[in-house]
Design a protein that fits this description.
It is globular and about 45 Å long. The protein is an alpha/beta fold. It is built from five helices and eight strands. The chain has a six-stranded parallel sheet, with helices on one face.
Length: 182
């Protein structure tokens, strides 16, 4: 059963997503053994049902690797032209402290490689120590990487209003701020 068109959301002018994202934090390792082949097979079942958008992170165990394998198998089954049907949002959560351009390049390069993409659909950045304003350096480096074409959209997770204002006042364009809702 395919979902109706109303199940999609125009997240950005060039990015349409499922209103319900497939969260992949469960594969991070604390929820028992994950069979990679079965996981990828289940990803096809979700996609075929119309759930084509994925929420993952570099620290969610093999989540980025699963997306990469899913994409490779998707090409074999359907074609590279249909890869645009898949949207994957990953996160980068560095340790607070000095963040260099090299650290950003290495982190983004790892995600690109693991996910088997040339450009990340959306990179969500998280920082948990607001006393350490190095998050601005990290975001400026990420904006540079975005300008180079390796990140389509830059977003945040769990930033408060005050820091969001500081970030946007620094000229960094943010498309979303994913906040916790329990």
């Amino acid at each position: 059963m395919a979902l109706p068109i109303s199940s999609r959301f125009q997240f950005a002018p060039d990015l349409s997503i499922s209103r319900i994202l497939n969260g992949m934090w469960q594969v991070s390792g604390a929820h028992g053994h994950i069979d990679p082949q079965r996981a990828v097979a289940e990803m096809f079942a979700y996609h075929d049902a119309g759930f084509t958008s994925w929420d993952l992170a570099d620290h969610y165990g093999p989540a980025e690797d699963f997306i990469g394998e899913f994409r490779r198998e998707f090409v074999m089954r359907h074609s590279a032209q249909r890869l645009s049907e898949i949207q994957a949002f990953t996160k980068w959560v560095p340790r607070p402290g000095r963040v260099t351009r090299r650290m950003v390049d290495d982190a983004i390069g790892r995600s690109l490689s693991r996910m088997d993409v040339e450009c990340l659909d959306l990179l969500q950045f998280h920082w948990w120590d607001y006393a350490d304003r190095s998050y601005l350096d990290a975001l400026k480096h990420l904006a540079d990487v975005q300008h180079e074409g390796k990140i389509r959209h830059l977003a945040l997770t769990n930033f408060d209003t005050e820091r969001l204002r500081i970030i946007t006042d620094a000229g960094i364009r943010i498309v979303s701020n994913q906040v916790q809702y329990s």
